[in-house]
Hints:
By secondary structure, this protein is mostly helical. The protein has helices at about 1-10, 15-20, 20-25, 30-40, 45-65, 80-100.
Amino acid sequence: MKNLIKQLHQGVDVKELKEKYRYELSQVLPIEIPFIEQELLKEGFRVDDILKLCDLHVELFREVLASRELKDVPRGHPLDLLIRENQEILKWSEALGLYASLL
């Protein structure tokens, strides 16, 4: 997976990577991504570079993540609010985790 993220950083097309690594992507748990990113930090990647790649990571994992999401939750339902809040918390906690790992 680190190789995949490194290829993203080098500018390889997301669609190409998605096709090439479809099986590997289906085997990765979302919780593993921050650990991979921390390893990249240890290898010299900058936090800013990794944060810029977050949207691309999500694009690559979108199909896998979509299969694990709740479907058809009406807007305004308590679960809808919980899901949206959780997405924001995860985004901020990942960024904070990256910065904390530098300390």
